[in-house]
Specification:
Elements (H helix, E strand, L loop, with lengths): L1 H38 L6 H16 L6 H20 L9 H22 L11 H39 L20
Helix pairs in contact: 1-3, 1-5, 2-3, 4-5
Length: 188
Amino acid sequence: MEMQEIRSRRDGSSSLKAIATGAAGAATVTLAHEVVRQLVPHPPRMDRLGMAALTRVLHAAGAPVPRGTKLRGYTLLGDLASNALFYAPLAMRGKRPVLRGLALGIAAGIGAVALTPVLGLPRRHRGITLRTQAMTVALYALGGLAAGAMASLLDRPNRARALGRRFASEPELGLGASPGVEPQTGEW
């Protein structure tokens, strides 16, 4: 029973790490896009692409299509959820989560640029200029970096515990002792 409890705690911890990692990446992409959209002339319009895609899916399903701010809100929620799911696997153990996050983000950005025409989404929202396409890739790469940094940050306690066990198992160092320094005897 005790081993099962430990396993379930570890699995729950992994799920929380994945959720936090995915949320960090998704929030970063979304927030960065909103900032760029407000400040940069002719920004990528990932929001409008999302709204067009959601409208197509709802039409195909025969569901009512919301308008205006409702459509934008649903699209924003969908973007956050899908991006969080996309970046969440970075929480799994592996080397160099920040570098893996960057690679994943670049791949997402290239996919967003390349798949938009294939999906038949409106030409005016596609990011036709090289500058807009580069900004799209950069936004997703930034999300990947944030997700990778979160995964690395959340994995630190595990690395610290492993390092502590290593030092505790080396008698010449002892726990908390520094090489070349005599341990204190407690006498004044």
